Amino acid sequence: MKSLVLAEKPSVARDIARVMGSTQTNRNYIDGPKYVVTWALGHLVTNAQPEQYDNKYKEWDLNVLPIIPPQMKTVVIKQTSAQFNAVKRLIERDDINEIIIATDSGREGELVARLILDKCKLKNKTLKRLWISSVTNQAIKQGFNTLRNAKEFEPLYQAALARSEADWLVGINATRALTKKYDAQLSCGRVQTPTLAMIAHRQTQIQSFKSTPFYGLDLAIEGTTFKWLNANKQSSVKNPEIVKEIAQKLKGQPVTITAVKNSEKKQFPGALYDLTTLQQDAYKRFKYSAKETLKIMQTLYETHKVLTYPRTDSRFISEDVVPTLKERLTAARKSKFGEQIKTVLRQPIKANSGFVNNAKVSDHHAIIPTEEAPNYLKLGARELAIYNLVVEKFVSVLMPATVYTEQTIEATIKDERFTAKHKIVTQLGFKALYEENTVTKALAFKQGERYTTYKLAQSEGHTSPPAYLNEGTLLKAMENPTTIFQIEDSKMAKTLKETGGIGTVATRADIIEKLYALNVVEQVNGGLRATAKGRQLLDLAPEKLKTPDLTADWEDKLARIEKGKYAKSQFIQEMKDYTQQVITDIKKSEKKYKHDNLTATKCPTCGKFMLDIKTKNGKMLVCQDPECNTKKNVVRTTNARCPECKKKLQLRGKGSTAVYSCVCGHRESQEAMNKRMDKNKKSRVSKGDVAKYMKAQKQEDEPFNNPLAEALAKLKLSDKD
């Protein structure tokens, strides 16, 4: 008898098959003496569409809403039905007596597998679960040695199913109701609408902010700047005349150092990465979008197998991972942090509560390197950047704390006080990863010293509004909405913090991308702003759907279902009641919607006027009729670079008449672009030539950063061998 292994993707299925000895490759599966491995191609089964319940729902009609089926149905996805049928036949094989779920180890992965298995109606088959955090050979073998009973994960499946059905009930009904009520493509949902509300709220704060000037005094002595303090220990005042009078009074008077206070302090490295904090840092350092970072992480996890499972909300590792730390460090020794890794490996590795805590690990531990060393020739520039980011964080928690002296210096001129504060680093510790200097020299100020040579200058500044949210800070706000909204209910604020805010680490990137796609959010100079359509949508959407506390309540209940402490049936009934109220409110509303981006261009499909839409990569025309939804590109930002200023070129038109233009004024035709690209290709070094050279030069004890090899690795390569 054999076991059928159901993976989520073909790439993971191939890895499992290779490790577990299955070698007979077929179109839809890989057979072996003990294991038959197949895959799901993502989702093979999904929620039925409204028209699949009743043909009357095929046309969007406000009068038939809400659509609340007595029993939710699932259907096989037509595009991947061939793979579903293949999986079904494998399940029904007489020589298969055990099913091993090997989809991603999380809520959504569980949903992918269980929907398929429920549709196949298992009979007399044992159900097991493979639960691993990386897809290295070692992790796969260990996982198969410790397979778990699938019944343990039944509550996880119920939570995933509850989330899926609730999103269907609220999303389908609210979107159809708003779209038909206002004859515009308006979509809302349990996470996307509060997220849009946060962006708009910050935007309103900035637009209503009134900047006010403030004034102070700066005292400069031997390169050190002291700030004046008034009687209330404030360094600035609103009245410039006060500062002017004090400056005049102190002119020519000596300075006395009245106090020098030294405090020894330590700074410890932050916790390890979960997906959200990794996405935040990737945006901050490299301007990678949340979606892009997740995509890179999936490749590093599935294809290169150098990082652990990305969709985690834990920033700690469990104690059972500690024995593998040395091996993981060794695997990363040829990274850019090789010298620091060597230093750490010379001493016994010390695990501490700063990054090891079983109680703070949920389904998966923090994102860390695996025991498998990367093949740097196969890593793209962006993959290498994210890998190094994770290695940097991983190595930092294994290094000593940074030790510094916080020195506070107080000076007086007559009866006016001035103060300066410095950090004097005495031991770099983990900051050696980020800083080239060694130890900061101590300042020379001593109590009782007097100075007659100094510079006293009046300073002026203006209060600044908060910054627009960007993709990094939005992720942080989604994780903790209390940083944007003032939530008066302390219990609800606590719930938001404990449940991880709105959305999950696995869904936030998709939510942000969806807001772009719906044209309710745009990016201006890196900052996120609600479009006119987005602001109108918030005005039209039901009030409760815009608040983070409602979304947090949903996430709290889903988490309780996941733990077996709340009934899925009760949650779904609440969602049905809520959906009924939402549709009633929309139908009763007397508000209006106005297209502010209507053009004189008629839709080639239905004849209605088209809308001018800004997208993340340019502009396009979209039919105003949501049911027509004809689209036409106008301007698109390409990956081609301007030969003058190196910025990305914009493309207008298509075919031989297309024109590329740049903000610097450069323009070129499609013909000129083709010639330039052909010329560049001829001057490139092939990947094959570089690979052969690197292989010939590589020796086990040779440092990775061989100057010639590194120079070659940085060349722009063609795909031609």
SSE topology:
Layout: E1 2-7, H1 10-19, E2 24-25, E3 29-31, E4 35-39, E5 45-47, E6 74-76, H2 81-92, E7 96-102, H3 107-120, E8 126-129, H4 137-145, E9 148-149, H5 154-182, H6 192-208, E10 213-221, E11 224-229, H7 240-250, E12 255-267, H8 275-286, H9 290-302, H10 325-331, H11 338-345, H12 381-396, E13 402-413, E14 416-427, E15 450-451, E16 455-462, H13 471-479, H14 490-498, H15 508-517, E17 521-524, E18 527-530, H16 532-540, H17 548-562, H18 568-588, E19 598-602, E20 609-615, E21 618-623, E22 631-641, E23 648-652, E24 659-661, E25 667-669, H19 670-682, E26 685-686, H20 687-697, H21 707-713, E27 717-718
Helix pairs in contact: 3-5, 5-17, 5-18, 8-12, 8-13, 9-12, 9-15, 14-17
What is the H level of CATH, i.e. the homologous superfamily of the largest domain? Topoisomerase I, domain 2
CA-based gyration radius: 30 Å
Oligomer classification: single chain
Strand order of the largest sheet: 2-3-4-1-7-8-9
How far is it from the N-terminal to the C-terminal residue, by CA? 46 Å
What is the count of helical runs?
21
Using the coordinates above, name the CATH class of the largest domain: Mainly Alpha
Largest sheet: 7 strands, mixed
Overall morphology: globular
Q: Structural class of the helix and strand makeup? A: alpha+beta
Q: How many domain modules? A: 6
Helix % is: 25-40%
Uncertain spans, ≥5 residues at pLDDT below 50? 696-721
Q: Kindly estimate the percentage of residues that lie in beta strands according to DSSP.
A: 15-25%
Strand runs, count: 27
CATH architecture of the largest domain: Orthogonal Bundle
Mean pLDDT: 87
